[in-house]
Structure formats: C-alpha cells, structure tokens
Specification:
The chain is of the alpha/beta class. The protein is 36% helix and 21% strand. A hairpin with a 4-residue loop joins strand 13 and strand 14.
Amino acid sequence: MQAPARGDETGGADGVEVAVVIPSFQQPFLLAEAVESVLAQRGPRRVAAVIVDDGCPMPETQETGLRLARAHPGRVHYLRRANGGLSAARNTGIEFALRAWPSCRAVFLLDSDNRLGPRLIDRAAALLEESGPATGWVYPDFDFFGIPEHASAAGAHSLFLHLLENTSDAGSLVARAVFEAGLRFDESMRHGFEDWDFWLRATAAGFRGRHLPVAGFRYRRRAGGMRLAAERRRAGILEGMRDRSRTLLDPRRLLALEAAEVPRFLLHRSGSAIAEPVVDPLRPVLPPLSRAAARRQTVEASRHPQAVHAPPFPVFASDAALHALSEGRLLHNLLWQAEILLRRVDAVAVTLAGGKDDHLTIERAGGPVPGDTALLVLRGATWQEEAALGTRFEAVARRAATLRITLPAGLAHEVPPVLAEAAAEFTALAEAFATRHPEHGEWRSDWRRPRAAAHQGYRELINAGAVLPWLAPVDGRDIALAVPIFELGGVEKVVTNYARVLRDRGWRPHLVVTGADRALLPEEARAVFETVQFPQAGGIEGNDPVAAHLGAPLPGITDTRDALGQLAPMHAMLATHAQGAHALAGALRELGATCIAGLHVVERDAAGAPLGSPHALLAHEAGYDLVAVVSHGLRDWCLAQGLPASKIVLVPNGPGHSAAPGTAEAAMAERELRQGPLRALFLGRLDPQKGLDRLRDIVALTPGVQWRAAGRAVLGQKPDGIPGLAVEPPPDGPAALDALFAWADVLVLPSRFEGSPLTIPEAQRMGCVPLVTRTGAVDEMVTDGLDGFLIPAGHDPSVANDFAARLAALAADRGALRAAARAAYARAVALPGWDIRMHDLLARLNKDPAP
C-alpha cells in the first residue's frame, strides 16, 4: 500500500475525534464533492477525511486525492492500495484512523458519491455519546438526489427486523468500541450487502444502532450501480450472510428478540387497566402499558407502521382463563392455533368446559363469536381498520373461528366471558382514532415492512410459519416428545416415564400429539409436561398417496412450515412412532435441535406389507441424530436395514408405573393360598394386532377358565368384539391396574405382532404369569417355562390350540403355576428403574452443554 499523502508530518494526530473513511473507485470527480462535504462540517469536534483509493485504474482518482490532501493538511489523508473491493477499502481506512488518532472516538463511512449535511457529524457524535456503550452506531434517514426521493429510517432499532432487511446504510457513524471488539467488513463479500452483514455481526457482539432524524445524509441514486447488482444476487448473498450469522437465527434467540422488540400479542386482562405486549403471556418481557397508552400506540402505528410497533393480535382473557389453560398446559398451543386461523378469519374465540375424565380435547367450529368466550384473539389489522371507521364491534367478529376446549374436571370452573370487555375496549379505541391529530403521517417514503408484520419474518429466517409463543422460564433445555396419539397405552406410558426422568435431569418436556385433537392426561402425567401441543387442523400424520420407500408409504404432510414453527423453540425432539415428524426432523435438526426417533415395534398391515413409522424412518434416517429402540430385536432390525450402529441406542422397556409399597408382596402372599378355577386376563387395545379372533377361539376352548378382558379401541374406532366375553374399560389408574393383575393368574396375549409390551413386566411384578405369542421382543422379557410361557407363532387354529393346552396344564397344576408366579415376581422386582434404563440415551442427549 502506498504511504499516505498528507500536508504535515503529524497527520493530524493532535485531537481528531471523528474520521470519515471514503473508499474511492472510478468516481474521481464525485469524490471531491464528498470530501468537501466533510470539510464543511460544523461544530466543535475535529473531523478528518481518509480517502482510500482502491486501486482505481483512473489516474484522476489519484490526482484528486493527492490534490485534496495537499490542500487540506491534517484534515484530508489519501491512501492507495491494491484493488480489494469496498470492504477491503473500508477496513484499510478504519485501520489507519484507529492507529493514527488515539483520540478518534468514531468513524463515519461515506461512499465517494454521497454527501454529508453540515451538522450531520456533530449531531450524530452527540447522539452516540449520550446513548451509552450499548449503542454501536448512529444511522440517518436517506435524502436521495439524482433520482430524488426521501426515505425514512425512523423508529427504535430492532435486531429482529434488521435480520429481515437492512435498516441502516453504511453511511453511519460507528463507535470506536465496535472496531476494538474486532469487527471489520468481510472482504470476501464483493457483490453487495457487506454493510448489512457488518451490522448483523455488530449486533451479535452486543451492539445496537440508533436512528438520527433529519440528519442531512445525501445519498446519490443513479440507474444501475452496485445496489441494483446486489439485489439481483440477493437470495444467494443472504443465504451466505445468514449461514455466517447462524447464532442470531437460533429460534429461541429470535423469540427472545421478538418479545423484547416486536411482540405479536397485546394482552388485555379482564378488569385490569393495563395492556401487556407479549409473546408468551406467562413471561412478559416489556413493561405493561396503560390501556390509554396502548391505544395511542395503536393509532400511531396505523400512521407510521414501519416506525411504531403495535402488536398484531389483541388478546382478551381473564386471569381465571389464563390460569385454567396454563394448568391444562394448552395456553401456548391455543395462541399458536389462533395465529394460524387468523390468516383467514378476523377473530378466534376459545371456550372452556370441564370434562368428566382426564381428557384434554380441542374441537374447531365456525360462526359468530359465542357469548361464553373465555379467551379472544383478534386480527389486529381488522381491529384497527374497523375502529378507525367507527363501526360496531360486531363487525370485527363477523368472520370468526371457535376453539372449544374441554379440560379435565376441576380446571375450568368460574371462568368469566370476555366479549363485553373486548367490545368496550373497541369503543375506546374508536374514540382514540376519532380524536387523533389530523396530520397525515410521515412525509418521507418508507421501504421497510410494517413492524406489526415482524412475526411473519420467521418464514424468511428459519422457513417456519407460526412459531410457538414459548419463552423458557429459566435456563435449561426444552424437548418435544412427539406421539401420534396419547391415550395412555404402552407407548404413551413409556413417553411419560421418559418425560419424568428428563425433567429430573433438568429438561423441560413438551407433549406433542401429531395425529389427534385429544389426549388422556391424568394429573400425575400432566404434571411432567410443560405444555401439551395439538396439531393444526388435520394433524400431520397420514400417508403420501403416491410416494413410498421400499414399499412403505412416506409421510403425507406437504407444507411443514407451521409444524416446524410449533417445534422450533425445542432443543430436542424424541418422536415415537410419529410418522409426520419424519418430514420435520431434517429441518428441525438444521435449526440446531437434536432429533431422536423412538421405535417400539415394526408394523405391518394385514397382508404383511411394510407399514408405518419404522419403515418410513428408513427414508428419513439422515434427519435424525439417534434412533432409540426398546429391544435387542429392534436394534438388530435397524442394523439389518442399514442404520449405522453409532446412531442406535437401547432403552429397554419396563413397568409403566411404580407399584404402591406392599402391593406386590400382598398379591404374592394371596396367590400362595388361592384355590378355584384358573383366572385368565386379556388386557390391551381392541384391534386386530392383538389377535382378538384368536382370543375368541381360546375362550371357546377353555370352558373351565374364569376370563376377564379389559381394553378399548383407539380413538373411537369400532372395536373387534369377543363373543361370549364382556369387555371392561381399561383400569382407571395404576392402583386399579395392579389390582386387575393381582386378580389374574395368567395374562393372555395372542398377538400377531408385538414390540416390548409393558403389560408383561407389570403383570410379572404382581405374580401374574404372562402367556404370549412368541413375536417381537417378548422373548427378551419372558424366559419360556420359567417366568412365563411363549406360544409359537403360526396359523391361527394352531396358535389357539397351543394357548388352550397351556392354560389347561396350568389349571391342572397349581404348583407349577405358583412356581412360575414366584419367578415372574422375582424377575420384575429386579428390573432397573427408568433412570437406569435411559442412562445411555441421556448420555447421548446431554453430549452438548445446555445453552
């Protein structure tokens, strides 16, 4: 690089406070105008210009730079370097200024075809100094000349919005502290947006910008040029920028930014004089506003939507409703559901009812907002438009959707309706619009998106639709436990035990039901989950009608963006037989989440063809970090299908609940004295997998056996009947289940296929001897002839005959039955707890420290 030309030997080292760095390439005569605008700066601060000739091939550039430096010694400095692009030229000038002037407190970056108003540097420096160390730069509005226009950059600086569009030009005053933090322009970026990239990296280092109004920044705009060339390459440049700024795009960080800068909900609590701008109603970040202040803000946002933020979704709810939905773990899900629905309606009403059991349910309906609405979410654009027109509140709710929520008994009592309060607030807002000052808004144009649309930016930033409004309460990690249904069958019991252990290890488990709008959650199960998440209308389960992998249908979900947004706040996902999750795993993993597929059984249809999640997983295996299997047999199946051994982790199944102290011992003592007919129990889902037709034949072949059957069909499907045998509902809770096993001598499972059923160790623990088809991993749970009996798989008549023969033998030999009961009990009580079972999974899951 050529030595700097200057008019004295000190280079102005005697107190320069602001350096203006001016890169120059092929604009020699415009350069003189830029430098003269620096020399014309007014105010007490010492300002110097640093011209950086970026290897310009035009001799006039060097001539102009040298002439200006010689004419203004100590105030203008000329540097020439080999051509390296705009970023390199800026960095050269910055380095020179920082070394030459220890007194330099800030650097203004001025392109050689632009100009400064005479007070710009003095006013910008004063604002920078008064703003404190967190403010890294001051940026102006744009006064274009050449092609004339005036553009506004007004409003508080928002990093969330800055991620979506460049709200600060390079023509800004940057504090020395920013450069001393090691920040420079990326010299590999030679096609534009290098200033946007610089600002994003500055924000990642903890700095923020601040707007300087009426600054007098004169921006020359001509046809063509770097700006338009950059726009043509926009998609590719942004992809590279965002890859380098990946930490800024962490979904949890984005949610925190949204909450602090541009929250999407404005919560009105019944009877309160305040309104709360929030993302997560349980964890507000911004201070509340008086209702009057919130209305004024809404009015101002309608006038200056790019500069003033008003949350786009007003929410009305009582504390009782918020408490009931929070206790039911549904509050966050309902707000997420409402955001999706508000794309096509103007209001979403939530009604609450208490159920007769422990089910959580959600039902969707249309029509007008009902009078018993407990929570109301409105589309802010309609809310504002109708209020500004002075129409009736009923007009806001002319297009509505209703979410009817049934909560477990005791959670939904005395929840007041909110319709009257919402109507009163609408009237007050209409008055605020009617009495506003009659100015017509900002005279400058504004290219930026409305701040109220910030929540839509997740689509650009992480390719997600509606993002779950979840802010973590404390440090730790959130994990989604995804299942297609949750009716407390074997898989769901396992998932609940996983959640309990994960919570004990510092994780926050979230239940995500991917294929149903109801879940059976007793209080003890509900207590281990932070939230319960139902899917958007229609769910995300189902098969692609065309695409298949090795004969198994692939997931049927086509637009994954809302489903991805639902999972985006999670640090990890464990999807157990949730086929729809396969379509999300790869994208979720790209967002930094650990993704685990849980396998319990290899499913096939009635004809034996591949079916369901395990087979579809093989096509999506690259999207998962781990595959958790419940048996050695499943591990071997995964290896045979080509899954890497390093991805497979074994988590053996065990009893789904802990027995009450003394229960098993009492059952064993009673068995030693038991007489009478053999007691046989069937317990399970009422579907073909469980071999109900075989059970029918077994019952017919064993007239001397006392039978009981308990179970239900899944999700209201019509159950297969068992002629001659009345079917009881499943036991209501662990104590009733243990009592049922204590009643039975044998558990009969003539299944066509199984995984690793929890009913086996649960029965063994109570001394109930399992009698099961040799299928799946049952031979890992039963030692044939010792603590249970395995019946060979085969044709239905032979299977039924073998079951009947074994039952007859046990009925005739009470001593053999007691011996098997003792061995079954001994095996079950020696089983490790879930924390031990999950040891390897936890070790793999916790390989990275919690953020």
